[in-house]
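To the structural biology subgroup,

Please find below the input and predicted structure for Family 43 glycosylhydrolase, which we are adding to the shared reference set this quarter. The sequence is reproduced verbatim from the submission form. If anyone notices a discrepancy with their own records, reply to this email rather than editing the shared folder directly, so we keep one authoritative version.
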Amino acid sequence: MIRILRVSLSLLFAVAAPVMASPDILNPLVKQRADPQVTLAADGYYYLAATVPEYDRIELRRAHALNGLGAAPAKVVWRRHASGPMSANIWAPELHRIDGKWFLYFTAGRSDAPFDVRLYVLENAAADPLEGEWIERGQLKTGWESFALDATTFALKGQRYLAWAQRPPSAAKHMTAIYIARMDTPLSIAGPAALLTMPEYAWERVKFDVNEAPAVLVRNGRVFMTYSASATDANYAMGMLAAPADADLLDAASWTKSPVPVFASSATNGQYGPGHNSFTTSVDGKTDILVYHARQYRDIVGDPLFDPNRHTRAQAISWRQDGSPEFGLPVADPMP
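Predicted structure (tokenized):
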């Protein structure tokens, strides 16, 4: 049984006024790119890694401004295999600079079992991630074999962590939970994984029991971990965990969990299924920015996984007086 401390919503997850779009962000940033991860690197570029609708490759693009990512050329840095591991459902790439090298963490299945996905890693020693050679480093082992996806990594107080989604060993077929583990190298975890959250609320269990796509923001003496829940249609929404930055992050009791979504569809603003987010900042580092995907319509014909119109979007984050982030509503697109 997971023990997650709960606090009054008025203290940690209080409802606040909707966030207004930063005036220099023009949405959507990039069309038909889901699961976006944007990082502002030391070279002054914003790098975007995201899932392409064909699920067949990993591409990177960069620009000196967020608004430039849509027009930036996409560089394909890796393509799926014809068969065997890493031959289907190439999802959720994330680009990270660690110890002087670039790493791409991504999800992949097999052509004979496309949804039997696992975590994999590519490595590039070049200073420029659009150049050099991306070397396959194989599967990132989590301690047991089951449906696993959406790896992210972050460092805090000299320790690097991996967070990801995976089906627990005894779970039902269509359920995923969020785990965390310490890393001893960029390619491996050290010690057992800790289970942080499972789908328990009704809004996390629409059509599928899903907690996936963790993303981490460290601010104001706390670690905020967002995640996405439910089916990937208009029911998709973001939840959030929070822990003190000096706590044992592998202890589920260190974390509080919001019982309500912190970011969800807005019919008023015409944005549906926002989620699978990442975090970046303005160029000057003064404004935290939420990057996410959403669709511009609610109704989908067929399986939402094969609807290509999840667009990469971004908006500024505001902060409550208690030091927790306020995401508000997914902002409306500019008037044509």
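Summary notes: The first strand starts at residue 34 and ends at 40. The chain has one domain: 34-326.

Regards,
Lab coordination
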